[in-house]
Amino acid sequence: MPIARRRTVLAALASAAVATPALLAARPTSALAADRYASNTRLYADPTLVEGTDYARRYRRQPAFDDALATNTPYPQVAVIAPHGGGIEVGTSELCLAIAGYHPATLAPATDGRLYDYWMFEGLRSSGGNGELHVTSTNCDDPYAESTCGGARYAVSLHGCTEADAGVGKDVQAVLIGGLDATFRELLRQEYNEAGITLAGGGGGEIDGIHPRNICNRTLTGKGAQLELTTALRNAMFGDNTRAGRKTSTQPIFGAFVEATRKAIARRVA
């Protein structure tokens, strides 16, 4: 199985450093019209917002060390992220944790040993208003998100969308697969088909996740996968669709989606 070695990673970082001016030139200068904050940095600087009350950031990196002189220890290869978790795009926090290999309620690790780095930004407001905490993925500049994706070869980003955004009919439970990693997209498509999960044809624009500054594409390979789940699909995944209830009331479709995604990840890194 191919693995990312220290020398390979250093070479990739060197190449990325050379390409930095071009990437900076491509970076959007403003957020989407619906976004109140042009970046995570702007949001964190707002004195009216309180971390732990209005929003939270959660992340986990797999331990990595190398004390051997003759061999190289592989770097973590996969990042799973949810840039709009909690009450912003409901259900994506729980999906992020489960796909990374952790139980959404207890954080108990998966017994198969497949654990991945994760990062999420969550809206915590209980009385609404979480939508104004949305920062579009091309403008995500949270340092933990950037380092988590930037240190991985592959990334998968979880999002929520409406059926209209995904180009499907009302109440259709579907997922739209985007991002610049064509190989990863195809593996995800195959696994979702096998699991009986409906695929959306394409939404166009930001929802397709093809901008190089999209956080899912800011990996060592310069590409990743973005998953947009319709409201109907996410609603079907939980018996109690509240922040407290989602983590302990996952439905069979939740497990099927998580397992299909994890199978695609395992095939991508094989």
Amount of beta strand = 15-25%
Distance between the termini: 5 Å
CATH fold category name: Aminopeptidase
Domain unit count: 1
CATH architecture: 3-Layer(aba) Sandwich
Annotation, overall tally of beta strands? 7
- Name given to the CATH homologous superfamily: Poly-gamma-glutamate hydrolase, zinc-binding motif
- Spell the H/E element sequence: HHEEHEHEHEHEEHHH
Q: Which ranges are low-confidence, i.e. pLDDT below 50, for 5 or more consecutive residues?
A: 1-32
Quaternary structure type: single chain
Give the count of helical stretches: 9
Radius of gyration: 18 Å
Molecular shape: globular
Largest sheet: 7 strands, mixed
Give the neighbour order of strands across the main sheet. Answer: 1-3-2-4-7-5-6
**Could you report the average pLDDT, rounded to the nearest whole number?**
88
- What's the helical proportion of residues? 25-40%
Top-tier CATH class: Alpha Beta
Structural class per helix/strand content?
alpha/beta
Protein model, in words:
By secondary structure, the chain is an alpha/beta fold. The protein has a single domain, classed as Aminopeptidase (3-Layer(aba) Sandwich), CATH 3.40.630.100. The protein is built from 9 helices and 7 strands. A 7-stranded mixed beta sheet has the order 1-3-2-4-7-5-6, with helices on both faces. Strand 2, helix 3 and strand 3 form a beta-alpha-beta unit. Helix 3 packs across helix 9 and helix 6 runs antiparallel to helix 9. It is globular, with a radius of gyration of 18 Å. The termini are close together. The N terminus is likely disordered.
